[in-house]
Amino acid sequence: MSDQPPEPPQTPLDPTEGQPPPPPPGRSQADPFWLGGTAAPDPAGPSWAAAPAAARHHVLRTTVAIVVAVLFVATGSVAVGLYALRGSGEDLTRMIPASADVYVSIDFDPSLQQKLNVDRLAQKFPSLHGTEGVDKAVDSAMDDALSGMVSGVSFHRDVRPWLGSQIALVGHMASGSDDAIVLASKDDAAAQRFLDTVKSHGPAWEDLSYKGVTLHVGRSGSSVRVVTTFVDHAVVIGGTISMVEQVIAADQGGPRLDQTPGFTTTVRTLPSERLALVYVSTAPLRRTFAGLGGLGALDGAPARNTLGLLAAARGLGVSLSAQPDGVAVDANIPIDASKLTADERKALTSAGSYWPLLTWVPEGSFGFFASPAGVTSPASALDQVASNASPELRHMLSTWHVSGPDGVAAHLTGDAVVEFGPSAESVAGTVILGTDDEASTRTALDQAAPAIARSITSGALGPIGGATPPMPKGLSKAQRRQFRKMLGGPTKPPTVRWTIVSHGGTQIHVATAVQGSLSHTLFAYTVADGAAIVSLSASSIEDALAAHEGGSNASTDAAVSEALRQSASDQGAIFYVDLGRVVAFAGSSGAQVPAELQALRSVVVSSRTSTDGVAARVFVAIR
After folding, report:
1. Which pTM was predicted?
2. How many Å apart are CA 598 and CA 118, to the nearest integer?
């Protein structure tokens, strides 16, 4: 078996930029919004009742809701709405001040390649065939998002006719109200009339001037409730006067976010063709953590604790893009290596390949998580956790022979695989942990297994293993009787029966809970081929052993190889779920599977680390 992953596809992106294709023949202004039609605003305008006090600072939360809605739109039932919007191609980064801690951009008029990809993917979902349903979905999502700003606003009636190609959010983390939403306009006159109508229905408005631009300030008593303005083909709605003034200043030549090293370094490696972008400055997060007791100051010194990456991080960038065969969410965290210790730099560059670990995963599994060993040993990591854990947890780890010099963790290498899939008992999960001493690990497991089985059957871990959980204290006789009746389980713990299943020369120990004529497997375990293996069934362990001994496994599974072409790297941890197999299994079990789920192929979560930064990707493949 080759340890090397398949070569990533070399799919060139269409460099064509410019205006989107014209609307299909026969379209008119009366067509649905998501097909490129327009509609005149309701002459009655919004009913601009005074917003409740709790809603006056909802710009940030509201826009986050918009972002979530649009992310759903781009990947689900209203993707066509984004594709067909005809905007003016605005770039709102010109209006984002350099001081911004948060910037979110949603592009309603992306590149031609993105539009083609979204259109291709959208056709895979049957629910998109109805224009009325999609139109209502867009309206509903946006109406809910805008309702936190002011009451009486209808996205369909008041915003949609003039909304251009982009929506942006800008804000500061230190204040929940110091933020603004910027909406590009494709009809400046209509956008201005919208603001005039808003002002005419307001309770108390004041006009201010800043750099030649008029600001409309809505007040509730002496407090600023909302600030609106129209500048450079965009409507700005903010929570404070200061934030709106910063937007205006950036637009008129002041310091801009896209000119700062933190922003440019963070977004540089993200896909340039995308539907949405999120940028978060890490400086406020460092200041927040530095102000908490016991964490110490993180700025200006090499990181010496688990927050080292936060101390060294320059920013966080996340993008959403449509690919020919799925949807990708990419993240990037650039790192200032001078703020890392030698051990932290080594940890970022020492990740091995996950491919050898996939030989433990039987072909046809539903999914897996695989992580090669890192710099920190499992025993050291467990000791660090235990040092800060409760006395009860430390006692449990000791009783189960997990921690300590003779515990299971002392002999683990750090290689780990978690696999789940069909088994003789329907569905089971299997954990495979690398070991550098099979004999010592086997001894530790033999000591730990009985204690774990007793904990399960006694109800100490909850209602599993066939045991009734401990009776709550303080109940009356009638309540105790009702408690037992509600659970419907046995009143005495079942006994544990141990058996051995042989697989070649390997012995698999199986713990079974027995209560009268009833029995079921608690767990099974073995140590073989340099690994400790624990599962919910002996058959799953046998499948893992057979796969590793040369049988069909995930490393040679064509579906897995195809899906992992979209991973960020073949180094470090990987998480994979074959959605097609999961859906097919659910359908064969009699479950009603929505048609939309049948279009999904797989999900891959991967990462890539170096002293330059951490990159991650979530890819949802669509058939």
Report:
1. 0.77
2. 18
